[in-house]
Amino acid sequence: MDKFADIRPYQDHEIRSVLDKLITNPEFLSSIATFYFPHLTRMFPRLMTSAARRKLQKQLKLVCNVKTMQDVIAIYMDKMILDTTTKLTHSGLENLAEDRGYLFISNHRDITMDPAFVNYILYHAGYETLQIAIGDNLLKKPFVTDLMRLNKSFIVKRSLKGRELLKSLNLLSQYIHHCINNEHNVWIAQREGRAKDGIDKTDPTLLKMLAMGNRELSLGNSLKELRIVPVAISYEYDACDELKAEELYTLEQTGSFMKTDRSDIHSIVTGMIGFKGQVDVAFGSALYITDDDPDEIAAEIDRQILQNYKLHDINFLAVKRLEQEGLISLNRFENRIAEREISNVSQEKFEKRLNAIDPSLHRHFLFSYANPVITKYKT
Fold it and tell me: Where are the domains of the chain?
């Protein structure tokens, strides 16, 4: 009996039947049509949906297992990178052995693009691609669940309560240990929910959950089995920066923010098709764990992510603007700001992006870009 069947990615023998079901799903086909033909789909939705179905049938004709499915997904990533980024860089692959499985824990800025970029780098470097942890709160629609599980995603059941949640987290941890023991790479975010304010911090309770998979060992030794590698992902421009600022502003003004059924889907699509500029993926070193304190282990993950996070011109421009508006003092950052040569092009792009959003959102927008600088140079 496969005890992980409800949460694991689809396996080779399941791929074809799921694909055949997907390419008849109207909502999925509409999404693909919008991705390929955004303007025409608005004008001729039925025609473009039909065109998307024919294109998919041709692309997926020879897909029969996970490997060939990943090859098709790489084509979509190529197009997305070409359309929405100016440069994709990476570092730290020399820290990884090709024949070992690792648990990659990264900062979390974008729902789907964070693991997608990590996966893309590994795929093109010849490494085992990732199995990706994704919360069931994002899987409101069956076709989205199928799509994620086709792309080697496994489900984190966050919507459960009490004993059922504890049981589910234990199974999840066992599954992650199972993956690493079989030399499969896994990705999970350092915290539940994206860092909307630009502050990347690992949740120690995540580490406690990860240690549950082998209760015979101490927390530290259980985590040591997972070969944890911190990963820093930095986007020059956050495609969802305005959406995040709106959420933070609403939360500040009303004390709550109510998501609609389409909120997460909107963030996913915006993250995929929105402009990102330069993107950098930096792999750290596998953790050398010597104690059982989850706070200390989380602090080391944070240290590596912060150290490897690539700062862009917009981060420094946001700091300068906050100082001009009297919201922060530049005392701690004066030398760093002075050392940074900001191009006129960067300045113009920054002003254009800032002026495109409602002034009420400016403070949250600016802090989301400034906080990586503030956090990195806080001492």
Answer: 85-308, 313-376
User: Are the C-beta atoms of 277 and 88 separated by less than 8 Å?
Assistant: no
What's the token pair of residue 341? 């040569």
26-36 helix and 263-273 helix, angle to the nearest 10 degrees? 30
DSSP string computed for 68-116: HHHHHHHHHHHHHHHHHEEEEEEE-GGG--TTS--EEEE--SSTTHHHH
What distance separates the 2 farthest-apart alpha carbons in the chain? 63
- In order along its 379 residues, the chain shows pLDDT tens digits of 589 999 999 999 999 999 999 999 998 898 888 877 888 989 998 999 999 899 889 989 999 999 999 998 888 899 999 999 999 999 999 999 999 999 999 999 999 999 999 999 999 999 999 999 999 888 878 888 898 999 999 999 988 888 999 999 999 999 999 999 999 999 999 999 899 999 999 999 999 999 999 888 999 999 999 999 999 999 999 999 999 999 999 999 998 887 776 777 788 889 998 999 999 999 999 999 999 999 999 999 999 999 999 999 999 999 999 999 989 887 777 777 777 889 899 999 999 999 999 999 999 999 999 999 999 987 6
The residue whose two tokens read 């690792």 is: 102
Residue type, 129: T
Which residue type, as a one-letter code, is found at position 166? L
Please give the C-alpha separations between residue 298 and each of 84, 92, 203, 217, 306, in angstroms, as whole numbers: 32, 20, 7, 19, 12
Whole-number Å distance between alpha carbons of 130 and 231: 13
- Tell me the pTM: 0.92
Taken as a whole, the chain contains a residue count of 379
Closest CA relative to residue 109, chosen from 339, 371, 378:
371
Tell which CATH classification among 1.10.10, 1.10.357, 3.40.1000, 3.40.1130 matches the domain 85-308: 3.40.1130
Q: What is the number of other CB atoms lying within 10 angstroms of the CB of residue 305?
A: 23
